[in-house]
Known about the structure:
alpha/beta, single chain, 13-stranded mixed sheet, seven-stranded mixed sheet
Amino acid sequence: MQGLMMNAPLNISALIRHADRFHGDTEIVTRLVEGGIHRYTYSDAHRRSRQLANALASLGVKSTDRIGTLAWNTHRHFEIYFAMSGIGAVCHTINPRLFPEQITYIVNHADDSYVFFDLTFLPLVEKLAPHCRGVKGWVAMTDKAHMPESSLDLLCYEQLVNGHSDHMEWPEIDEGAASSLCYTSGTTGNPKGVLYSHRSTLLHAFGACLPDALGLSARDVVLPVVPMFHVNAWGLPYSAPLVGAKLVFPGAQLDGASLMELFESEKVTLSAGVPTIWLGLLNHVKSQGVRFGTLKRTVIGGSACPPAMIRTFEDDYGVQVLHAWGMTEMSPLGTVNTFKSRHLDWPEAERQALQNKQGRVIFGVDMKIVDDEGLELPRDGQAYGDLMVRGPWICREYFKGEGGDPLRDGWFPTGDVATLDQDGFMQITDRSKDVIKSGGEWISSIDLENTAVAHPDVHEAAVIGVAHPKWDERPLLIVVREPGATVTREALLAFFEGRVAKWWIPDDVVFVDALPHTATGKLLKTKLREDFGRHKLPGT
């Protein structure tokens, strides 16, 4: 017997239509790439998205066509999200921080028919164009007055939009149809495409808004620092219109001073980004002696958030940190660190230890840890193993079948090593490829890195395993000092005493001017292993 309910497909267009109808006067604010501030409303965004959809149709864009973007977080990028998926095309966000050769591969692999780009990326586009012969046109996301001179025959975004009517009804689309495409920023091999559906995107937006997740509401002012080319800004451009939250887009200026100005002028209540961004913001706030006026919570993910950063936000500035974890293959949200009621009565040290974990599993994601034989390990917070996930917004295979079937018995292997407790709190102890095996025992490079950056003279730190004749591998600490700091190797190693197991303490320290990062801000361990993997440890 079937239920007698309407069968309304979960389409992305429903989000912007809802925001228009019931939150139509709520603002969307953008710091423009051309300079200045742009303001309009959800109703305006919906109208212009329909105009853009008609413009795309006039260019011959059809259902399932892939359209690329090389763009910052702006109102125009927001419009593209809804116009493309609204007519059944696929919005393909491209990370401009990748190497040009990787971007060329991605554009060609995705078979992008058009690419929209912000003016910042014109030099990049002019390098890419000769190698992306399948692209029919390049669209500069600006108005006629700011159109740049170029060797390419560029289309103007505003002329496209303004040249078409907003009269259209969004078509009803199979909710399983593709809506957007993001490529992983893998450090080995070619990037692989993760193809999201309308259904997975809407379910993820619902999950993100839950009180024990990001807790979004119409009372929030949301500033996504995480780029819209990084897993669709963690879904915030979809979650915000779902609840009618005000959106503030920072454009290309992500330095601490520019972000703080927007936080205060627009009364931002929630923001989201990777630890490196917050490091710059906190340094600015501290140097200027200012405080956050309205910011209530910040989502920190992309890589493990150092405990010292959590304490600074919460203890010094009264801003709640939502430590979160996910992957491109997970849309990306998997866990968010929110307490249950009984945790509020725990001693402070125990609460802080719990908050350092990557968070609690949200509904829509199933999670387990397994040993080397694939057998499930106990959820006791002590056993650690390979982290496996499954759910309605998790990748089942990569675009065009690249890499074969990634699943193991219906579960997606994340590549992380983690612990999991009975309350669903998960803690990443390492990437499986980064874990250090010393004398047959595992050492968590993440724990060592977090300990190192707690030292006041350490700006950033990374730990890799290097060969040892007796123990197979031993940890090497690679450190960037704070400006003007003169902390020594001996002082840093002494700092670990009493904070980690004695046999975990690194065997040596190397000081560098900067650490390499991936295009999404994560430490590039492959480069560090390449540079320091043959480092000679003392006594060997």
